Structure formats: structure tokens, C-alpha cells
């Protein structure tokens, strides 16, 4: 399934700036960045649960915001892209 993660981390403090870097690092390890605080993931339900738990362990619920959008393949999710960025085709051949 396609999962979109969006986050807004309070960076007014040094601790907040560290949280921002840690959250981005967690996301970069699993998916691809499509905007500064927006990532796409092609993962299954178990991977989603693990990702959510890792992200929740990094943020402060009273200061930060995390949103996860799950777009199941069965509903024919459509992503329209505009501009210079092109997402990785997770279903296509892997070329190194």
C-alpha cells in the first residue's frame, strides 16, 4: 500500500531541531522524501505499524504533529505530480 507521512515538528528549541532530524532520518530509512516534511512509503500493514511506532517514539505529542495517510492499492490511488520531482517507481525494475 502507499502511505504518506506528513509532520510538523516544533523547532523553536534545540531539542525540537534534534527531533526534526531524527524523524526525517526514520522516514528516509523507509521511504522517499517528496517534500521537506512529506514522505511516501510503499509498505505493508506490518511495516506501517512499525514505522508509526518508531515515529511516535521520536515526537512530542504536545508540541508536534504527525499524520499518516494510508492509500490501499485496491482503491486505485492516484498521485498527480507537477514540477521537477519525480517519484521512484516502486513497482518498476530496480536499476543500480
Written description of the protein model:
The chain is α+β, with helices and mostly antiparallel strands and 96 residues long. It has a single domain, classed as 2-Layer Sandwich (Alpha-Beta Plaits), CATH 3.30.70.240. It is 30% helix and 24% strand. It has two helices and four strands, in the order βαββαβ. It has helices spanning 14-28, 45-58; strands at 2-8, 32-35, 38-42, 65-71. It has a four-stranded antiparallel β-sheet, with helices on one face. Helix 1 (14-28) runs antiparallel to helix 2 (45-58). The longest helix is centred in the N-terminal third of the chain and has 15 residues, at 14-28. The radius of gyration is 14 Å and the shape is globular. The protein starts with a strand and ends in a 25-residue tail after the last strand. The model has no long low-confidence stretch (mean pLDDT 86).
What's the quick description here?
This protein is an alpha+beta fold. The protein has helices at residues 14-28, 45-58, and strands at 2-8, 32-35, 38-42, 65-71.
Please give a handful of descriptors for the protein shown.
4 strands; four-stranded antiparallel sheet; 30% helix; 24% strand; single chain; Alpha-Beta Plaits; alpha+beta; 96 residues
Write the H/E string, N to C: EHEEHE
Q: Give the overall average pLDDT.
A: 86
Number of domains: 1
Label the overall shape: globular
Main sheet: strands, sense, barrel: 4 strands, antiparallel
Helix/strand class: alpha+beta
Q: What spatial order of strands do you see in the largest sheet?
A: 2-3-1-4
